[in-house]
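<derive_structure_tokens>
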Amino acid sequence: METFQARIDSYNKTKRTKQSLARSTSGSAKWPHATSYIATPRTLADAGFYFDPGPENLDNVTCFMCGKQLSDWEPDDDPFELHYLKCSGRCAWASARCGPEAEKRADGQFHFADSSRLPTSRAMEKARLETFSGNIRWPHDAVEGHGANSLQMAQAGFVYTPSHPGDDSVACYYCGTALNGWDEDDNPTLVASSAA
């Protein structure tokens, strides 16, 4: 579930769920809410959640990175905001991906509650770096001396957003830049500043 595509696909497949442990019957579940909800399969997958229904919670989702489960979605529940509020500081995805989305005002500007949330803070750099070390590892860390190693990427403001194993796609959620195809002599900081 490390990739956006795997997470989005989890909402498109019918899931088998245990209806009752006592009866040992099973049923199936699809994402139960209308597209008018803020929490759609797309927004949930982008916020790091895959569909993981249970017998009592047919709208249960689980974060691929920290394992946090959320359910009982209401029409105005924002997956980015909820993930950030419940898991920032414990989940790199909640901090590095959901935090910027939750901190963005209607005019597109960011409002940071404290200095640890600034893009240049050590806490944010650490959260971004942790996105490069999940089950799908950053491919360029295996190449000695590669300019686009995970530390350089995190320092430049990038979050790892692979679509498949071996992919080197990254995104900066402050400027909206998404890039891939990193060469050995690339300098992520220079690339980031020229792309923004």
Summary: Confidence is low (pLDDT under 50) at residues 20-25. The CA atoms of residues 117 and 124 lie 6 Å apart.
